[in-house]
Amino acid sequence: MTMLITGATGHLGRLVIDSLLRRGVPADQIVAGARTPASAADLPVTVVEFDYDRPETLAPALQGVDTVLLISASVPGVRVPQHAAVIDAAAAAGVSRLIYTSVTRADTSELLLAGEHKMTEELIAASGIPSTILRNNWYHENQLASAQQAAAAGVLLSSSGDGRIASASRIDFAEAAAAVLTGTGHEGTVYELSGDTAWTAEDLAAAISDAAGSPVAVTHLSARDHAAALTAAGLDEGTVGFLTTLDANVAAGALDDDRSDLRDLIGRPTTPLAEVLRSAL
């Protein structure tokens, strides 16, 4: 069985390939799809050009491939046509299984990122390709930039109130993808993948304090005041809107979850947030 990992040079893609190799998958059964193959030259597997924006690269890369892990594109606003091109090419190539990295409760969530994932899930269902949906919650690593800033300033700005995020590490999500890629009986399943312990802004500040060895306090703000503070710090309008909308989503519970799908797939507890922060700070 040959499996193609899209976005193979990204953080998640590389970790999935590492996990597959550790699980004993032969290197010649793994194909790394990369927009720029030269950037994947260090990977010990077959590398092919695979550019979501250049459909002519997709069909050749999919020849002889049985399973595709479609790692969602990174740029909001253009994901749906990019994903549609991959799904269409996979269907035309006769791919027997498609696995997609979506987002928590994509079909019902008000999360600002959910719409494109919901549409992609619908395209996959319409394609008729047997599929598995991995609805990944937030990554611990998404907090590293704000954690570093908070550690330096001694203050964490937040408008998320008491909202909680059930995040996990990239390696957790990568190992879950590898478990599905190498396992059986996952077709037609939607997995809601979340960390074991959800955290609030107060919990995050405490973890940053512990990792950095210096106190960090939370300043709770209204969305309007948060936007003003971020603007004053030099962030552009689009970034400010994204961050404040995300905090509003968190406050409304969009990233809170207590399901065990991730822990069950990887066969161990998920990585604690504090562990990732300690490694980074």
From TrEMBL:
Gene3D superfamilies registered for this protein in UniProt: NAD(P)-binding Rossmann-like Domain, UDP-galactose 4-epimerase, domain 1
Superkingdom classification of source: Bacteria
One annotated GO molecular function: NAD(P)H dehydrogenase (quinone) activity
EC number: 1.6.5.2
Signal peptide interval: none
The keyword Oxidoreductase belongs to this UniProt entry's keyword annotation: yes
Taxonomic source organism: Microbacterium lemovicicum
Record carries keyword Transmembrane: no
InterPro entries the record matches: NAD(P)-bd_dom, NAD(P)-bd_dom_sf, NmrA-type_oxidoreductase
Segments forming domain NAD(P)-binding: 7-182
Identification of the protein by name: Quinone oxidoreductase 2
Keywords attached to this entry: Oxidoreductase
